[in-house]
Automatic annotation (TrEMBL):
Residues 6-345 form the FAD-binding domain. GO terms for molecular function: FAD binding; monooxygenase activity. It comes from the Bacteria. This is FAD-dependent monooxygenase. Its cofactor is FAD.
Length: 385
């Protein structure tokens, strides 16, 4: 693709930021439009698996992230009541070498800040909520709620589970509520009163689960994130504060060690878990989707952001190297190379079986979105086994 085309990315989430950074490195002009007025350090952690870290390497921020993030010695799955270890995946240097990068935990706010440092100054236009878009004669016209207008030759919809760009492409359809909410809490490790916890542990209950991990190298911040049944979600907000007693009660009967962690959280929020059925249309004309905008996933493999980031890496390669000046060809290669993988991740996320027992993570962690050979659409499988 010619490098002087104007590319607009809608949404400065992890997928949008990664895509913008990689496109800039390939020589494209990119503007990101984000509805929020600024980035905030919301209370949440995130796992960055080796497949993600390999993309961060190409953005030049892998070392910064490995310096600030916590390197868990293992991912540990434990049974909710007895604490029996169901599965343990060690992250020692040989395993890191095998996967091709480290596995780390970071604070999402810290990750965003590091990602922003990988972009050209002024790339993100904050306070720009996309209201409407229309493609005329190969140019996409964008209108924002603040009254601003913009034009682009290509638009990448990285605007998350309630994507406006997806609505433009596929019509209005609400995401599917899973019947579960996730509790999230971030608090100082000092509140554990010396209780030793493993760096990254998932406690598997019956119909519910909860993950506990440190988010920073210095182990001074703890993050817990759960999934528990919750009949309905009617709020238009993306999260609500959660009553602390109700949070503690949700883990009644769990192992005493986990109960002690839960009881230490001073403030808790509650997030609805949404997803959508896979679709096989990710683009039309000069507009394309990535990440949660096209395949929102339940967070039970900790891979929603990972898939958005990988999408961005493969899309950037397709735009740079495939299709000459025809976006439709680049987009068809992109979708054909990504859909089998995102469909598989979605299937396992819905089943919530990842790491519950012995699991071979190679197909997920060894993948390098920046180097994997790209297959022509007629050669790509529809779904990975
Ligand atoms: C409880 C929970 C825990 C999770 N844990 C993990 C984990 O450990 N690892 C992992 O890989 N994934 C995890 N995920 C999934 C992950 O958060 C998402 O899959 C990921 O953030 C998707 O990235 P994205 O860039 O596609 O969308 P988002 O991160 O949702 O970003 C979309 C951006 O677009 C902006 N936007 C939206 N609409 C507009 C508009 N109209 N105009 C302009 N801007 C707009 C939004 O403000 C936002 O900044 C978790 C999810 C949940 C709910």
């Amino acid at each position: 693709m010619r490098r002087d085309i104007r590319i607009a990315v809608i949404g400065a989430g992890l997928g949008g930021m990664t895509t913008a950074g990689l496109l800039q490195r390939a020589g494209f002009k990119v503007q990101v439009f984000e509805q929020a007025a600024a980035f905030s350090r919301i209370g949440a952690g995130i796992h960055l698996s080796p497949n993600v870290m390999k993309v961060m390497r190409r953005l030049g921020i892998e070392t910064t992230l490995t310096d600030i993030g916590l390197h868990p010695d293992a991912f540990v799955s434990r049974k909710w009541d007895t604490g029996e270890v169901l599965f343990e995946l060690p992250f020692h240097p040989q395993n890191e070498a095998h996967f091709g990068a480290a596995y780390i935990n970071v604070h999402r706010g810290d990750l965003h800040q590091v990602l922003e440092s990988a972009l050209d100054h002024g790339t993100v236009a904050f306070g720009h909520k996309l209201r409407a878009m229309e493609e005329r004669h190969g140019i996409v016209h964008l209108a924002f709620e603040n009254g601003a207008k913009a034009e682009a030759d290509l638009v990448i919809g990285a605007d998350g589970v309630n994507s406006r760009v997806r609505e433009y492409l596929l019509g209005t359809e609400k995401p599917r509520y899973s019947g579960h909410v996730a509790h999230r809490a971030v608090f100082p490790a000092a509140l554990l009163n010396g209780l030793p916890i493993r760096a990254c542990t998932k406690w598997w209950g019956e119909g519910s689960h909860i993950l506990v991990y440190y988010m920073t190298q210095a182990r001074e911040e703890v993050y817990v994130v759960s999934s528990v049944p919750h009949r309905e979600w009617t709020s238009p907000q993306s999260f609500l504060p959660c009553d602390r007693d109700a949070f503690i009660a949700a883990f009644d009967g769990y192992h005493p060690e986990l109960q002690q962690v839960v009881a230490a959280a001073p403030e808790v929020t509650m997030w609805p878990v949404f997803d959508r059925e896979p679709v096989d249309c990710w683009s039309r004309g000069n507009v394309v989707l990535l990440g949660d905008a096209c395949h929102p996933l339940r967070p039970y493999m900790a891979s929603g952001a990972a898939m958005a980031i990988e999408d961005g890496a493969v899309l950037a390669r397709c735009l740079a190297d495939i299709g000459h000046d025809d976006p439709a060809t680049a987009f068809s290669w992109y979708a054909a190379n990504r859909m089998p993988r995102t469909n598989k991740v979605q299937r396992i996320s819905v089943a919530n079986t990842w790491f519950r027992g012995p699991t071979d993570p190679d197909w997920l962690f060894c993948y390098d979105a920046c180097a994997v050979p790209l297959l022509a659409p007629q050669e790509a499988p529809r779904e990975l086994a």
